[in-house]
Amino acid sequence: MKTISLLLLSLLGFFPSENAPTKLALLKYNGGGDWYANPTSLTNLARFCNEQLGTDLDPDYSTIEVGSAELFNYPFVHMTGHGNVVFSDAEAENLRFYLIGGGFLHIDDNFGIDPFVRPAMKKVFPELQFLELPFTHPVYHQKFEFKNGLPKIHKHDGKPAQGFGLFWEGRLVCFYSYECDLGDGWEDPSVHNDPEEKRQQALKMGANLIEFVFQQ
Fold first, then answer.
1. Is 1 part of any domain?
2. Do 143 and 212 touch, CB atoms closer than 8 A?
């Protein structure tokens, strides 16, 4: 890697000092949904990426509100939860500018967010539709190979895991992992007692997302 794309960072206006590791960000939104659902997930993902990809991510992630100007300081923003999601007009506009300007949003269905997050993102990009990514998409073929797309970490409704994307001028700006639960798989082992094989699958897919975003 294994360095973050300078173009991406310049688009975001983000130039970390030599001694300041990049932070991942967790998106805080309104509506009553539990945006805070997986408190250990991004910390563990950052550590895994540092070990496996040679990144220098700060395990102490940031929490950023949708409408905050601080959003533009982070190349990778993660969103999760089980319930309602509401973006104000100003928040939707801010998120749109962030994504068009070079940012990236990963939405992780933590079981129940789907009927709320789709209309919320439609407010951000009314002209775009979520498209299912083919298994040949590069996001599944970074350091770790996922020939059959997203791994299935938790059962949910028993449906197959699917990866959807929003594309702006050909660039993947938002990846939505549905019926998968990557974030639960990133959490401390004691939280869900997942088999280590499942947890490793989740972390590897998360690392693929990070590698894809930082190199595109």
1. no
2. no
Q: Which of 196, 51, 29 is nearest to 105 (CA)?
A: 29
CATH of the domain at 31: 3.40.50.12140
State both tokens at 123.
Answer: 């407010």
Distance (Å, rounded) from C-alpha 180 to C-alpha 78?
15
pTM: 0.90
Between the two ends of the chain, the Cα-to-Cα distance in Å is 12
Beta-sheet strand order (sheet of 105-108): 57-65, 22-28, 77-79, 105-108, 171-178, 162-168, 131-132
Q: How many domains does the chain have?
A: 1
Distance of alpha carbon 147 from alpha carbon 47, whole angstroms: 25
Q: Looking up tokens 């970074």, which residue turns up?
A: 142
Say if residues 78 and 24 touch (Cβ distance below 8 Å): yes
| Domain housing 198 | 6-215
Residue 175 domain flag: yes
Is position 148 within any domain?
yes
Show pLDDT as tens, one digit a residue, over the chain (216 residues).
333 343 444 444 444 444 567 999 999 999 999 999 999 999 999 999 999 999 999 999 999 999 999 999 999 999 999 999 999 999 999 999 999 999 999 999 988 899 999 999 999 999 999 999 999 999 999 999 999 999 999 776 778 999 999 999 999 999 999 999 999 999 998 887 889 999 999 999 999 999 999 987
